[in-house]
Structure formats: structure tokens, C-alpha cells
Write a structure and sequence with these properties.
alpha/beta; about 10% strand; single chain; globular; about 260 residues
Length: about 260
């Protein structure tokens, strides 16, 4: 059943942007198909939907990291957008080679926000990705909400925490200057670093991932965090529940051979 919102895409995008600046933190329980989108959208207090690239890839038998064909990912995104009335933000990883074309396809599918990651590429490369995405939104008449992710904390495991913070802050400021609405810093969990990034980026600009060790949403809200995503973890929890169900109900011992 098509549940596409009666709001225009422009209104949806503007609403999604406002949610980042509300007093309440924007909590996104990421989805991977129409069924999961409907479940999350029906949860009291849910105000927006976000996809998770890893979950969508796994659902279709692919590893994360732009291994899923982009057309298949966009088709899944379209089904998510058609299943709910809430604004949808799409995880586009690094942009699947052509940021402009992928962003355009995501907008045509119904998304009004995107997540772009730097994978620790040159800062100039990520700035160009952001500008291209923003320009594509403008060409569609949609004020696209861009969540620019830096992988400093995830991909520099041997660096000192202060080095993580300093690089994330520098990259984040440049991404915001390039047109991003917020900066996604997965792996950042220390209170002082979070508070400092909020101060560096300004209100409504810091986005975090709910990894182990991350403070609860209420505490992050007090610290000034705008957005908290759950990434691939809802999908993993769902598969764990399926595994438990299967083990509970499957016949784990071999059947006795038929007699006669």
C-alpha cells in the first residue's frame, strides 16, 4: 500500500531540517525495507525514517561498502518511501561513484535527506561530494538535508583520542562550510569530545551513532547533540530474534528413518 505523504518534497525536507533544531534530539531507528519502515514509523514519537546501507545490503545478500547494485538499493529506498508518510533520509554511503546521479535517483525515489560518508578520503573530495549533492537537491527544487559522515573515529584505531577529535572537528567544519546540514561522527563517545564538537559546529549540527559506550539519548540531548542514529544494529537485533525463534521451533535432531 502506498503511504506517500501528502506533504510536498520541499515541505518534507524543511520539516526534516527543523527536526535537527528542535529541543528534543532526533532519534532514528534505521530501517531496511517497507515492513521495517512501517513498524518504526508506527512507533509513538517517531518523526522521521532513515535507511541503513549495511542492513539493505545484507537483506539482498551483499556486503556493505557499495557492493549492492545502486539500482537495487534505490528500488529498496523507493519502497521504504512509499510505505510511510514521514520524511525519509537515505544512506548513500560514498555516493556510488556518481554522487549527483545517485542523489537524483534518491530524490526521485522520495528521499529528502541523505547520508554521505568520507571513508577518510581527501577533505576536498568530500567537500565536492557535498556540494554536488546540495546542487542536485536545488535542481530538483528540494532543500536536501545532508548528513556528512566522517570516519575518523572508526578508521583510525591506533590514533590517540585527541587526534580523533581534532581531525573530526576540522573535517566537520569544512563539511558544514561546503553545505552539509550536520556532521555525523560515529564512534565518538567521550562526553568532553561530544560537548566540544557541539560547540565547534553549532546547534543542530552534530549527529552520532548509538554504538556501545554511547550515552543514552536523553543525556546526549542535554549535551546538545542534534541527531542519534542506530545504523545496522536494529537489523542485527532482528536477525538475532529470528535465530532464537528458529532454534526454538526447528527440529534440531534428525528424524528417525521411516519403517516398512
Amino acid at each position: 500500500m502506498n503511504q506517500r505523504s501528502t506533504r510536498s518534497p520541499r515541505d518534507q525536507a524543511e520539516h526534516l531540517r527543523r527536526l535537527h533544531h528542535d529541543d528534543a534530539i532526533l532519534v532514528l531507528v534505521n530501517v531496511w525495507d517497507a515492513a521495517s519502515a512501517r513498524v518504526v514509523a508506527a512507533t509513538p514519537g517517531c518523526s522521521a525514517i532513515a535507511t541503513a546501507s549495511a542492513a539493505i545490503a545484507a537483506t539482498h545478500g551483499y556486503e556493505d561498502g557499495e557492493n549492492i547494485p545502486v539500482d537495487l538499493m534505490i528500488d529498496c529506498l523507493r519502497r521504504v518511501c512509499q510505505a510511510v508518510e514521514l520524511p525519509v533520509t537515505a544512506d548513500l554511503e560514498r555516493g556510488y561513484t556518481d554522487v549527483g546521479a545517485t542523489t537524483s535517483a534518491a530524490l526521485d525515489a522520495g528521499a529528502v535527506g541523505i547520508n554521505l560518508e568520507d571513508d577518510l578520503c581527501a577533505t576536498e573530495t568530500m567537500e565536492e561530494r557535498i556540494r554536488e549533492a546540495v546542487d542536485t537537491g536545488q535542481a530538483h527544487g528540494i532543500p536536501l538535508v545532508v548528513n556528512a559522515r566522517t570516519d575518523v573515529f572508526l578508521l583510525r584505531p591506533d590514533a590517540a583520542p585527541e587526534q580523533h577529535y581534532a581531525e573530526a572537528a576540522e573535517r566537520g567544519r569544512r563539511y558544514l562550510d561546503a553545505g552539509a546540514d550536520c556532521v555525523f561522527v560515529p564512534g565518538c563517545t567521550a562526553e568532553q569530545h561530544i560537548r566540544d564538537l557541539v560547540a565547534q559546529f553549532g546547534p543542530g549540527r552534530l549527529s552520532l551513532l548509538a554504538v556501545p559506550g554511547t550515552a543514552d539519548a536523553g543525556t546526549l540531548q542535554e549535551w546538545g547533540v542534534a541527531r542519534l542514529s542506530h545504523g545496522p544494529f536494529p537489523h542485527r537485533r532482528t536477525l538475532q530474534a529470528l535465530d532464537a525463534y528458529a532454534r526454538e521451533h526447528a527440529e534440531l535432531s534428525p528424524k528417525s528413518p521411516r519403517q516398512g
